């Protein structure tokens, strides 16, 4: 058992609901705060001096300068397991070259699939560890990572194995996104590809992931074929999540109907979609990094919150559409364009994002939660979003241990 502190402020995020809008005056702020930690979990949060007086023999991890403590972030949507770069795509896209032409020049998702297939498991592991450990340094203590650049039984298993074997102190949640697009080298229709996954891939990966994702979009898989796939996937015992409403609406409603843990993207969601999400237990995940990477509108985060949805914010880190990979910067920018409060952004980066991963013991600084948190060199929590990602945490704890 040890006591960590004193912190100028602890932003606990306790007492905030999973759903709906939140004003900043709902934030619980413990000034001159301390956290009592035992066996990787939080025992008690309160005034540092009081906690020290109550526990005089305690080991103390002393914080000697002003710091604001907040929960570790949860990035609930990433594609960090890839090789290669799409810098050519980015340059061409910004120069006005159409997507099909970029693909003909050797860009597009297929170039990432090729580079990822050509990388050995060891190379992929090193690339991925570098990315995840830099996330961790920036306060992201839990990260979801999707497969989806393998697109064959063998290559998807290679990627899922890699994700499972990462040498990192961050918690990693693997998800299978073999239904990313129909691969060029698959001889058959989209429906046949999904059937192939159900028969030949999914039975072999139950020890590697309990989560299945699909990219539902005109250019990938339609709503009907996605519904059929997800039905089968659920019958096999997997949890589901959906890439929904990125360019065309309709799939977020399908995700809700199928009982998905989350519907992610939502840039194209209509009022009806927003209301369906708000009246469900499906987490609405905004991915501002993709909007910034593509120069597209942001997901309607404000409307989703006002309607009563559970809004999470994730990075979508991937080489094609969201190459930045800086969650705090992206969330800060989303806040300015969508008019989100500090309370809404921090909730969306922590316990609300954890709900999208079906995790309920992370994302708050509260008794019983994992001791995953991060400290910023300031004495006012509002400085964090104000600096739009330039103020980074300089101390990160995972299960009570310093990273
Ligand atoms: Zn994505």
Automatic annotation (TrEMBL):
Gene Ontology CC terms, in alphabetical order? cytoplasm
Q: Specify the domain of life of the species encoding this protein.
A: Bacteria
Keywords, sorted A to Z: Histidine metabolism, Hydrolase, Iron, Metal-binding, Zinc
Query: EC annotation?
Result: 3.5.2.7
Q: What pathway is this protein said to act in by its record?
A: Amino-acid degradation
Q: Does the keyword Ribosomal protein apply?
A: no
Q: Among its keywords, does the record have Disulfide bond?
A: no
Domain Amidohydrolase-related, residue spans? 68-396
GO MF, any single term: metal ion binding
Q: Which Gene3D superfamilies match?
A: Metal-dependent hydrolases, Urease, subunit C, domain 1
Q: Which InterPro entries does the UniProt entry name for this protein?
A: Amidohydro-rel, HutI, Metal-dep_hydrolase_composite, Metal_Hydrolase
Q: Which Pfam families does UniProt cross-reference here?
A: Amidohydro_1
**Which GO terms fall under biological process for this protein?**
L-histidine catabolic process to glutamate and formamide
In terms of PANTHER family, this protein maps to:
IMIDAZOLONEPROPIONASE, IMIDAZOLONEPROPIONASE-RELATED
Query: What is the protein name for this chain?
Result: Imidazolonepropionase
Q: Species name for this entry?
A: Lacihabitans soyangensis
């Amino acid at each position: 058992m040890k006591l960590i502190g004193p912190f100028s402020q602890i932003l606990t995020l306790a007492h905030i609901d999973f759903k709906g809008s939140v004003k900043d005056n709902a934030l619980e702020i413990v000034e001159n705060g301390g956290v009592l930690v035992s066996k990787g979990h939080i025992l008690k949060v309160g005034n540092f001096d009081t906690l020290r007086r109550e526990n005089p023999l305690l080991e103390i991890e002393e914080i000697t300068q002003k710091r604001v403590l907040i929960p570790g972030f949860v990035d609930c949507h990433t594609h960090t397991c890839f090789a290669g770069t799409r810098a050519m795509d980015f340059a061409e896209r910004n120069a006005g070259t159409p997507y099909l032409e970029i693909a003909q020049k050797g860009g597009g998702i297929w170039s990432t699939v090729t580079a990822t297939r050509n990388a050995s498991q060891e190379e992929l592991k090193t690339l991925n560890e570098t990315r995840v450990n830099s996330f961790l340094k920036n306060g992201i203590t839990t990260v979801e990572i999707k497969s989806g650049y393998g697109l064959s039984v063998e290559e998807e298993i290679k990627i899922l194995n890699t994700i499972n074997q990462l040498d990192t102190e961050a918690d990693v949640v693997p998800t299978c996104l073999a239904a990313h697009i129909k691969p060029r080298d698959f001889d058959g229709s989209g429906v046949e590809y999904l059937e192939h996954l159900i028969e030949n891939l999914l039975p072999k990966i139950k020890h590697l992931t309990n989560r299945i994702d699909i990219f539902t979009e005109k250019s990938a898989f339609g709503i009907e074929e996605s519904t059929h796939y997800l039905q089968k996937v659920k019958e096999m015992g997997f949890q589901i999540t959906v890439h929904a409403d990125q360019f065309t609406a309709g799939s977020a409603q399908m995700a809700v109907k199928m009982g998905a843990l989350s519907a992610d993207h939502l840039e194209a969601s209509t009022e009806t979609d927003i209301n369906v999400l708000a009246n469900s237990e499906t987490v609405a995940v905004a991915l501002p990094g993709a909007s910034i990477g593509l120069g597209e509108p942001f997901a309607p985060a404000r409307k989703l919150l006002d309607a009563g949805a559970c809004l999470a914010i994730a990075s979508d880190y991937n080489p094609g559409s969201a190459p930045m990979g800086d969650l705090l910067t992206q969330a800060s920018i989303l806040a300015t364009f969508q008019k989100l409060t500090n309370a809404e952004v921090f909730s969306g980066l922590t316990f609300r994002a954890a709900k999208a991963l079906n995790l309920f013991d992370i994302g708050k600084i509260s008794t019983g939660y994992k001791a995953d948190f991060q400290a910023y060199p300031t004495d006012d929590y509002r400085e964090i979003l104000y600096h739009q990602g330039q103020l980074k945490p300089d101390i990160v704890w995972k299960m009570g241990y310093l990273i």
